Amino acid sequence: MALIEVEGLSRSFKVRGRPDVVAVRDLDLSVEAGEMVGYIGPNGAGKSTTIKMLTGILVPTSGRIRVAGVDPSRRRTDLARRIGVVFGQRTTLWWDLPLQDSFALLQKVYRVDPARHRANLAEFVELLGLGDLLPVPVRQLSLGQRMRGDIAAALLHDPELVYLDEPTIGLDVVSKGRLREFLRTLNAERGTTLLLTTHDLQDIEALCRRVVVIDHGTAVYDGTLAGLHAQGGSTRTLVVDLVDERAPIEVPGATVRRVEGPRQWLSFPADASAAPVVAAVVAAYAVADLSVQEPDIEDVIRELYSR
Ligand SMILES: Nc1ncnc2c1ncn2[C@@H]1O[C@H](COP(=O)(O)OP(=O)(O)OP(=O)(O)O)[C@@H](O)[C@H]1O
Predict the structure, then answer these.
(1) What pLDDT does residue 306 have?
(2) Which atom of ligand 1 is nearest to the CA of 49?
(3) 57: Cβ below 6 Å to ligand 1?
Protein backbone atom coordinates (compact mmCIF):
# COMPACT_ATOMS: atom_id res chain seq x y z
CA MET A 1 0.00 0.00 0.00
CA ALA A 2 1.21 3.51 -0.80
CA LEU A 3 2.23 5.77 2.09
CA ILE A 4 -0.09 8.55 0.92
CA GLU A 5 -3.31 7.61 -0.84
CA VAL A 6 -5.78 10.29 -1.84
CA GLU A 7 -8.89 9.69 -3.93
CA GLY A 8 -11.44 12.21 -5.08
CA LEU A 9 -10.35 14.62 -2.36
CA SER A 10 -12.19 17.95 -2.16
CA ARG A 11 -12.31 20.78 0.31
CA SER A 12 -14.35 23.94 0.07
CA PHE A 13 -14.59 26.93 2.37
CA LYS A 14 -17.68 28.94 3.20
CA VAL A 15 -17.12 32.61 2.68
CA ARG A 16 -19.78 35.10 3.70
CA GLY A 17 -21.62 36.75 0.83
CA ARG A 18 -19.78 34.82 -1.86
CA PRO A 19 -20.07 31.37 -3.40
CA ASP A 20 -18.03 28.69 -1.60
CA VAL A 21 -14.33 28.65 -2.45
CA VAL A 22 -13.31 25.21 -3.71
CA ALA A 23 -9.65 25.01 -2.65
CA VAL A 24 -9.13 21.35 -3.59
CA ARG A 25 -11.31 19.61 -6.15
CA ASP A 26 -11.45 15.89 -6.84
CA LEU A 27 -7.72 15.32 -6.26
CA ASP A 28 -6.13 11.89 -6.71
CA LEU A 29 -2.60 11.33 -5.46
CA SER A 30 -0.56 8.32 -4.48
CA VAL A 31 2.95 8.51 -3.02
CA GLU A 32 5.08 5.45 -2.26
CA ALA A 33 7.39 5.20 0.73
CA GLY A 34 10.84 6.59 -0.11
CA GLU A 35 9.71 9.01 -2.83
CA MET A 36 10.66 12.70 -2.96
CA VAL A 37 7.76 14.49 -4.63
CA GLY A 38 7.58 18.17 -5.57
CA TYR A 39 4.06 19.52 -5.10
CA ILE A 40 3.90 22.75 -7.03
CA GLY A 41 1.38 25.20 -8.39
CA PRO A 42 0.59 28.90 -8.63
CA ASN A 43 -0.49 30.94 -5.58
CA GLY A 44 -3.86 29.85 -4.31
CA ALA A 45 -3.73 26.54 -6.20
CA GLY A 46 -4.58 24.48 -3.12
CA LYS A 47 -1.18 23.23 -1.96
CA SER A 48 -1.43 24.30 1.68
CA THR A 49 -5.01 23.09 1.91
CA THR A 50 -3.90 19.65 0.67
CA ILE A 51 -1.06 19.50 3.19
CA LYS A 52 -3.37 20.56 6.02
CA MET A 53 -5.71 17.69 5.10
CA LEU A 54 -2.80 15.26 4.91
CA THR A 55 -1.70 16.25 8.42
CA GLY A 56 -5.27 16.03 9.73
CA ILE A 57 -5.58 19.73 10.66
CA LEU A 58 -8.37 20.16 8.11
CA VAL A 59 -11.20 17.73 7.46
CA PRO A 60 -12.02 17.09 3.78
CA THR A 61 -15.42 18.08 2.41
CA SER A 62 -15.40 14.81 0.47
CA GLY A 63 -13.09 12.09 -0.75
CA ARG A 64 -10.75 9.65 0.90
CA ILE A 65 -7.30 10.09 2.46
CA ARG A 66 -5.02 7.49 3.96
CA VAL A 67 -1.60 8.39 5.30
CA ALA A 68 0.40 5.42 6.59
CA GLY A 69 -2.87 3.49 6.43
CA VAL A 70 -4.93 5.83 8.62
CA ASP A 71 -7.40 8.66 8.17
CA PRO A 72 -5.39 11.76 9.23
CA SER A 73 -8.26 13.80 10.70
CA ARG A 74 -9.44 10.89 12.87
CA ARG A 75 -5.99 9.75 13.97
CA ARG A 76 -4.15 13.04 14.05
CA THR A 77 -2.26 12.42 17.28
CA ASP A 78 -1.09 8.93 16.28
CA LEU A 79 -0.03 10.22 12.91
CA ALA A 80 1.89 13.14 14.42
CA ARG A 81 4.41 10.61 15.73
CA ARG A 82 5.03 9.35 12.22
CA ILE A 83 5.18 12.58 10.22
CA GLY A 84 7.21 15.78 10.36
CA VAL A 85 6.14 19.20 9.12
CA VAL A 86 8.34 22.14 8.18
CA PHE A 87 6.90 25.54 7.23
CA GLY A 88 9.43 27.92 5.68
CA GLN A 89 7.38 30.94 6.67
CA ARG A 90 6.87 30.22 10.33
CA THR A 91 8.66 28.40 13.06
CA THR A 92 7.51 25.57 15.27
CA LEU A 93 10.32 26.33 17.72
CA TRP A 94 9.82 28.15 21.03
CA TRP A 95 10.74 31.73 20.22
CA ASP A 96 12.28 32.79 23.53
CA LEU A 97 14.06 29.54 24.36
CA PRO A 98 17.55 28.49 23.33
CA LEU A 99 17.43 26.10 20.41
CA GLN A 100 18.59 23.20 22.61
CA ASP A 101 15.62 23.69 24.96
CA SER A 102 13.18 23.37 22.06
CA PHE A 103 14.86 20.11 21.09
CA ALA A 104 14.64 18.84 24.68
CA LEU A 105 10.94 19.75 24.86
CA LEU A 106 10.23 17.93 21.60
CA GLN A 107 11.78 14.78 23.01
CA LYS A 108 9.19 14.95 25.81
CA VAL A 109 6.28 15.88 23.54
CA TYR A 110 6.90 12.93 21.21
CA ARG A 111 8.22 10.68 24.00
CA VAL A 112 11.25 9.78 21.93
CA ASP A 113 13.49 7.15 23.48
CA PRO A 114 16.31 9.18 25.15
CA ALA A 115 19.14 7.23 23.50
CA ARG A 116 17.49 7.58 20.10
CA HIS A 117 16.96 11.31 20.72
CA ARG A 118 20.65 11.79 21.62
CA ALA A 119 21.81 9.91 18.52
CA ASN A 120 19.47 11.84 16.20
CA LEU A 121 20.36 15.15 17.77
CA ALA A 122 24.09 14.50 17.43
CA GLU A 123 23.63 13.56 13.77
CA PHE A 124 21.45 16.55 12.86
CA VAL A 125 23.62 19.02 14.78
CA GLU A 126 26.59 17.76 12.79
CA LEU A 127 24.89 17.60 9.37
CA LEU A 128 23.09 20.93 9.75
CA GLY A 129 25.98 22.76 11.45
CA LEU A 130 23.94 23.66 14.54
CA GLY A 131 26.68 23.20 17.18
CA ASP A 132 27.30 26.88 17.94
CA LEU A 133 23.63 27.74 17.78
CA LEU A 134 22.31 25.40 20.47
CA PRO A 135 22.50 27.96 23.33
CA VAL A 136 21.07 30.81 21.21
CA PRO A 137 17.42 31.86 21.67
CA VAL A 138 15.46 31.19 18.51
CA ARG A 139 14.45 34.83 18.08
CA GLN A 140 18.15 35.73 17.68
CA LEU A 141 18.76 33.26 14.84
CA SER A 142 19.02 34.32 11.21
CA LEU A 143 16.40 32.95 8.83
CA GLY A 144 18.77 30.27 7.51
CA GLN A 145 19.85 29.25 11.02
CA ARG A 146 16.26 29.10 12.22
CA MET A 147 15.30 27.03 9.20
CA ARG A 148 18.02 24.49 9.98
CA GLY A 149 16.79 24.40 13.56
CA ASP A 150 13.22 23.86 12.38
CA ILE A 151 14.27 21.02 10.12
CA ALA A 152 16.14 19.27 12.92
CA ALA A 153 13.10 19.79 15.18
CA ALA A 154 10.79 18.18 12.61
CA LEU A 155 13.02 15.12 12.34
CA LEU A 156 13.99 14.31 15.92
CA HIS A 157 11.14 11.83 16.35
CA ASP A 158 12.22 9.84 13.26
CA PRO A 159 9.22 10.59 11.05
CA GLU A 160 8.88 8.35 8.01
CA LEU A 161 7.13 11.12 6.07
CA VAL A 162 7.99 14.82 6.07
CA TYR A 163 6.01 17.69 4.53
CA LEU A 164 8.13 20.70 3.68
CA ASP A 165 6.31 23.90 2.76
CA GLU A 166 8.72 26.33 1.02
CA PRO A 167 11.75 25.16 3.02
CA THR A 168 14.27 27.30 1.10
CA ILE A 169 12.24 30.52 0.94
CA GLY A 170 14.39 33.56 1.70
CA LEU A 171 17.64 31.61 2.03
CA ASP A 172 20.87 32.57 0.29
CA VAL A 173 22.36 30.32 -2.39
CA VAL A 174 24.83 28.61 -0.04
CA SER A 175 22.18 27.84 2.59
CA LYS A 176 19.82 26.53 -0.08
CA GLY A 177 22.52 24.23 -1.39
CA ARG A 178 23.32 22.88 2.07
CA LEU A 179 19.69 22.29 2.87
CA ARG A 180 19.08 20.41 -0.38
CA GLU A 181 22.14 18.27 0.26
CA PHE A 182 20.85 17.47 3.73
CA LEU A 183 17.40 16.48 2.43
CA ARG A 184 18.96 14.28 -0.23
CA THR A 185 21.02 12.50 2.41
CA LEU A 186 17.97 12.08 4.65
CA ASN A 187 16.04 10.44 1.83
CA ALA A 188 18.93 8.27 0.67
CA GLU A 189 20.12 7.07 4.07
CA ARG A 190 16.90 6.84 6.04
CA GLY A 191 14.45 6.35 3.19
CA THR A 192 12.37 9.26 4.54
CA THR A 193 9.54 10.18 2.17
CA LEU A 194 9.44 13.89 1.35
CA LEU A 195 6.59 15.96 -0.03
CA LEU A 196 7.86 19.40 -0.88
CA THR A 197 6.03 22.54 -1.94
CA THR A 198 8.21 25.24 -3.40
CA HIS A 199 8.32 28.14 -5.81
CA ASP A 200 11.98 27.40 -6.53
CA LEU A 201 12.43 25.10 -9.52
CA GLN A 202 16.00 24.41 -8.44
CA ASP A 203 14.68 22.73 -5.28
CA ILE A 204 12.77 20.38 -7.54
CA GLU A 205 15.70 19.90 -9.89
CA ALA A 206 18.00 19.03 -7.00
CA LEU A 207 15.59 16.78 -5.12
CA CYS A 208 12.52 15.47 -6.88
CA ARG A 209 12.32 12.91 -9.62
CA ARG A 210 8.57 13.37 -9.56
CA VAL A 211 6.57 16.59 -9.76
CA VAL A 212 2.85 16.98 -9.23
CA VAL A 213 1.42 20.27 -10.49
CA ILE A 214 -1.82 21.44 -8.93
CA ASP A 215 -3.95 24.26 -10.25
CA HIS A 216 -7.42 25.32 -9.16
CA GLY A 217 -7.32 22.42 -6.71
CA THR A 218 -6.78 19.66 -9.28
CA ALA A 219 -3.64 17.82 -10.36
CA VAL A 220 -2.86 18.91 -13.91
CA TYR A 221 0.50 17.14 -14.27
CA ASP A 222 2.21 14.19 -12.59
CA GLY A 223 5.60 13.07 -13.91
CA THR A 224 9.23 14.06 -14.23
CA LEU A 225 10.48 17.65 -14.28
CA ALA A 226 12.02 17.03 -17.72
CA GLY A 227 8.61 15.85 -18.93
CA LEU A 228 7.00 19.00 -17.53
CA HIS A 229 9.52 21.20 -19.34
CA ALA A 230 9.03 19.25 -22.56
CA GLN A 231 5.23 19.36 -22.30
CA GLY A 232 5.18 23.05 -21.49
CA GLY A 233 7.87 23.82 -24.08
CA SER A 234 9.57 25.92 -21.40
CA THR A 235 12.73 27.81 -22.10
CA ARG A 236 15.80 29.06 -20.33
CA THR A 237 17.33 32.41 -21.15
CA LEU A 238 20.92 33.17 -22.00
CA VAL A 239 21.73 36.81 -21.27
CA VAL A 240 24.65 37.92 -23.45
CA ASP A 241 26.56 41.17 -22.92
CA LEU A 242 28.34 41.82 -26.19
CA VAL A 243 31.31 44.10 -26.43
CA ASP A 244 29.44 46.15 -29.08
CA GLU A 245 25.82 46.93 -29.87
CA ARG A 246 24.57 44.74 -32.72
CA ALA A 247 21.51 43.62 -34.61
CA PRO A 248 20.05 40.39 -33.13
CA ILE A 249 22.79 37.76 -33.27
CA GLU A 250 22.32 34.40 -34.97
CA VAL A 251 22.92 31.33 -32.86
CA PRO A 252 21.87 27.74 -33.75
CA GLY A 253 19.39 26.32 -31.24
CA ALA A 254 18.50 29.69 -29.70
CA THR A 255 16.33 32.67 -30.56
CA VAL A 256 16.93 36.32 -29.67
CA ARG A 257 13.92 37.62 -27.71
CA ARG A 258 15.09 41.08 -26.77
CA VAL A 259 17.91 43.53 -27.47
CA GLU A 260 18.87 46.47 -25.26
CA GLY A 261 22.12 48.22 -26.17
CA PRO A 262 24.89 45.63 -26.15
CA ARG A 263 22.75 43.19 -24.12
CA GLN A 264 20.73 40.46 -25.86
CA TRP A 265 18.38 37.86 -24.37
CA LEU A 266 18.32 34.46 -26.13
CA SER A 267 15.88 31.69 -25.28
CA PHE A 268 16.59 27.99 -25.73
CA PRO A 269 14.73 24.82 -24.63
CA ALA A 270 14.92 24.31 -20.84
CA ASP A 271 15.71 20.62 -21.23
CA ALA A 272 18.71 21.33 -23.50
CA SER A 273 22.26 21.98 -22.30
CA ALA A 274 23.40 25.60 -22.26
CA ALA A 275 26.93 24.57 -23.26
CA PRO A 276 26.54 24.41 -27.07
CA VAL A 277 24.59 27.67 -27.13
CA VAL A 278 27.25 29.42 -25.04
CA ALA A 279 30.02 27.91 -27.23
CA ALA A 280 28.33 29.11 -30.43
CA VAL A 281 27.91 32.65 -29.07
CA VAL A 282 31.49 32.88 -27.85
CA ALA A 283 32.89 31.45 -31.11
CA ALA A 284 31.11 33.97 -33.32
CA TYR A 285 30.94 37.21 -31.27
CA ALA A 286 33.04 39.32 -28.91
CA VAL A 287 31.40 38.75 -25.54
CA ALA A 288 31.91 40.72 -22.31
CA ASP A 289 29.70 38.59 -20.05
CA LEU A 290 27.14 35.75 -20.06
CA SER A 291 24.56 34.38 -17.64
CA VAL A 292 21.79 31.79 -17.76
CA GLN A 293 18.37 32.46 -16.24
CA GLU A 294 16.23 29.50 -15.21
CA PRO A 295 12.49 29.61 -15.84
CA ASP A 296 10.48 29.94 -12.65
CA ILE A 297 7.62 27.70 -11.69
CA GLU A 298 4.97 30.23 -12.69
CA ASP A 299 6.54 30.44 -16.19
CA VAL A 300 6.56 26.67 -16.62
CA ILE A 301 2.96 26.35 -15.54
CA ARG A 302 1.84 29.25 -17.72
CA GLU A 303 3.51 27.58 -20.68
CA LEU A 304 1.81 24.30 -19.82
CA TYR A 305 -1.53 26.03 -20.40
CA SER A 306 -0.61 28.06 -23.44
CA ARG A 307 -0.10 24.89 -25.47
N1 LIG B 1 -9.75 29.17 5.58
C2 LIG B 1 -10.07 29.56 4.34
N3 LIG B 1 -11.20 30.24 4.09
C4 LIG B 1 -11.52 30.64 2.85
N5 LIG B 1 -10.77 30.40 1.76
C6 LIG B 1 -9.62 29.72 1.94
C7 LIG B 1 -9.20 29.29 3.23
N8 LIG B 1 -8.01 28.63 3.09
C9 LIG B 1 -7.69 28.69 1.77
N10 LIG B 1 -8.66 29.34 1.07
C11 LIG B 1 -8.68 29.56 -0.38
O12 LIG B 1 -8.46 28.32 -1.02
C13 LIG B 1 -7.62 28.48 -2.17
C14 LIG B 1 -6.39 27.58 -2.03
O15 LIG B 1 -5.55 28.08 -0.99
P16 LIG B 1 -4.19 27.39 -0.55
O17 LIG B 1 -3.66 28.18 0.59
O18 LIG B 1 -4.39 25.93 -0.36
O19 LIG B 1 -3.27 27.63 -1.84
P20 LIG B 1 -1.70 27.42 -2.03
O21 LIG B 1 -1.55 26.64 -3.28
O22 LIG B 1 -1.09 26.87 -0.80
O23 LIG B 1 -1.21 28.90 -2.28
P24 LIG B 1 0.19 29.66 -1.94
O25 LIG B 1 1.20 29.17 -2.95
O26 LIG B 1 -0.17 31.08 -2.16
O27 LIG B 1 0.53 29.32 -0.53
C28 LIG B 1 -7.33 29.96 -2.26
O29 LIG B 1 -8.26 30.51 -3.16
C30 LIG B 1 -7.55 30.45 -0.85
O31 LIG B 1 -7.96 31.81 -0.87
Answers:
(1) 60
(2) 18
(3) no
Entry pTM? 0.82
Residue nearest to atom 25 of ligand 1 (CA): 43
Ligand 1 within 6 A of 21 CB? yes
**Nearest-angstrom CA–CA distance, 255 and 217:** 35
ipTM over 0.85: yes
Does 48 score more than 60 pLDDT? Answer: yes
Q: What distance in Å separates the CA atoms of residue 185 and residue 206, rounded to the nearest whole number?
A: 12
